[in-house]
Amino acid sequence: MSTKEFKRAARIILVGAPGVGKGTQAERLMKRYPQLSAVSSGDLLREGVRNRTPLGLEAEAFIKAGNLVPDAMILKLILDKLKSNRWVPTQSSITDPSPTQPSKDPSASFILDGFPRTATQASRLDSLIPVNLVVSLITPVNIILSRIASRWVHAPSGRVYNTDFNAPKVPGKDDVTGEPLTKRADDDEETWKQRLKKFDETSQPLLDHYDRKNVLWTVKGNSSNEITPKLFQELDSRFA
Question: pTM of this prediction?
Fold first, then answer.
């Protein structure tokens, strides 16, 4: 895969139903555009808890009590990461009255993963840092469900196979260890139908929010391989 250089900073969010292939697209984007990094709210949270940082300990208390980590805490984690990379001014704070002025340097480009999930969270993020591209990834529900039905995992390593397009060398066996593959406990059709329905309900206000900001771009395809070239073409025209 040939690489491309950005001419300006890209601050991207990928929005898509579970099973649509957000992770696959993020990996491909980072390979094509070396200046692009992933900023994952989930990873930042786990890192904070593991390293026993003040914010990590505070978040852990919410998690242990069975509560959601407050938006303000997630935003602070994201802002701390952006500050440590010098992508925003180091004096920036989530209490600032206006959004921070992010670096225009192409090396300050990132894909934000895991946040925001709702229009309310998006508004909070707007007040912190302006996002300049939100990609809505769309694959028909029947395709997603057939993908899940064909998915097998090697639980100890987390390796994922799909009998339709990424089959193991030996059916039912992990390529590396030869150990048996299993189905994830929640990979049944009814569970997935519920997850997809819930995603539709919460994502539409989020997409409407970004549409009003004129940063929403929608791409449709039956497979990741169908979507990727369209995604590359759009990012080339906007940032490269």
Answer: 0.84
